Amino acid sequence: MTFCEELYAKAKHIWIANHKHPFVQGIGHGTLPKESFRHYMIQDYLYLIDYAKLFALGSVKATDVETMGKFGEILHSTLNVEMDLHRQYAKKFAISEEELENAQPASSTIAYTHYMLQVAQNGTLAELVAALLPCMWSYNEIGRELAKIPGALEHEFYGEWVEMYSSKEFGELSNWLKDLMNKLAIGKSEEERKKLEEIFLNTSRFEFLFWDMAYHGETWPEDIR
Ligand SMILES: Cc1ncc(C[n+]2csc(CCO)c2C)c(N)n1
């Protein structure tokens, strides 16, 4: 069993809950209220700004030029491919640049990004990768599952989302990160492997909270905004 297979077995119940989440199913069946998707797009844009920094930190912590370069490549594709999708959606959903710039991150967005940045800044490269992995891997799994639903790829609003995350390029990125996680886990102590598992489980849980936040349009309560 590879280390990633072990991680997957431990997190399976969380991943199943993520796949079944009404937000995820709503994208696939085209039934998600547009208001929820609009809220998600804004929060995800804020999320990606912080998330992208993990790739920069990955480059800093890498110990070989090839890994450094790959993290640099993913940083570039997050800022210019993935976030471009968000900028296109912002136009489609009448989200102005001003609204995007001035948006306040929800509490779950802050909790998720700050947790990952904390791990990335204070931990080893293996810990950084364990924090990143559920995000890349689960989106690709979700994208590929949703792409099987008839009409999902052609949907007027959500089709492009399904297309991006089910794409071959995203699959390759996710496989690269899984391979790296497996390599970095070799020779690690039982204690360190436990720590990697805990980080992986936590960011898998944060993925769930993020879907939930988006679905319910969660923001800070009005009187304390
Ligand atoms: C909450 C949340 N989790 C995961 C992703 C997906 N994602 C973020 S960066 C990246 C790789 C390269 O751009 C992928 C697949 C997201 N957008 N939002």
UniProtKB/TrEMBL annotation:
UniProt keyword Hydrolase present: yes
Swiss-Prot/TrEMBL keywords: Hydrolase, Thiamine biosynthesis
Ranges for domain Thiaminase-2/PQQC: 9-216
InterPro entries: Haem_Oase-like_multi-hlx, TenA_E, Thiaminase-2/PQQC, Thiaminase_II, Thiamine_Salvage_TenA
EC numbers, comma separated: 3.5.99.2
Catalyzed reactions: thiamine + H2O = 5-(2-hydroxyethyl)-4-methylthiazole + 4-amino-5-hydroxymethyl-2-methylpyrimidine + H(+); 4-amino-5-aminomethyl-2-methylpyrimidine + H2O = 4-amino-5-hydroxymethyl-2-methylpyrimidine + NH4(+)
NCBIfam families: salvage_TenA
Subunit (UniProt): Homotetramer.
Protein's name according to its UniProt entry: Aminopyrimidine aminohydrolase
Organism (species): Priestia endophytica DSM 13796
Source organism phylogeny: Bacteria, Bacillati, Bacillota, Bacilli, Bacillales
